[in-house]
């Protein structure tokens, strides 16, 4: 048996398709008796509205598209949970895609979601995204767009970010106050504002505390995963005068570096201290536990979703993009406290 259409149901009842549609939507012009007849028949024949046909009629669906760099990263998975909680309560479902840190896949995802007439799009850009033409096209199509965490700064959309500069500043200051002198920065790559802001916060903390910046201690891993952290640690291990502490761009990179240093028989934090970024559950499981910047991921997802709902409910002429900056918390643990061991 094929899918029963609205016209099939109308034909069975001897009514017009428009009458059946209005009865299903509780239109006041339709009598209670006709509504009962239609609803009972729809239940009997297991009729379900066709969401594709509905989206064509309304020019959009009740689906919200979400694009994240990767789901396996606990931070983004938690953000998605926050988005889903708000959108479910508002009557929307979410469709999640991951770019896998590829701008090509991000473009494909954005195009596919737009073709499926999503009501709106929530996005954290990939590490490769330095051109926003595909996102400009989403906006041109009239699809509301909200960016979170990793954003294109000059794109005129609402954004939810953390205070990356001050978070890195706090983390670096902690390392300085603990007594470390040669502090390295394990970055991903250039081009992403988040990376630049964290690096700038690190530099400013060194300057404000009268500490020297050693350019050779800036190592760019190219990515944000554990294997990238291992590769970065390998570069530090080859140095004649390596750092005594490192601020990593995120927790997976810090954990990868941690594991490689341990394999090299380095003591943490006595020989080298480590600080991450994210506040992921994994950061508390290694020994000693990783000092990290805790980011409000779930709250970020909820706020991004609410900004999108606000845009969906506003008239186009009345909409003004907003940028909301969330604060962070420095969780000081054993990986940066020599006295802890």
TrEMBL record:
Signal peptide: none annotated. GO terms for molecular function: DNA-binding transcription factor activity; transcription cis-regulatory region binding. Residues 4-58 form the HTH lacI-type domain. CDD domains: HTH_LacI, PBP1_LacI_sugar_binding-like. It comes from the Bacteria. Keywords: DNA-binding, Transcription, Transcription regulation. This is Transcriptional regulator, LacI family. It comes from Desulfovibrio gilichinskyi.
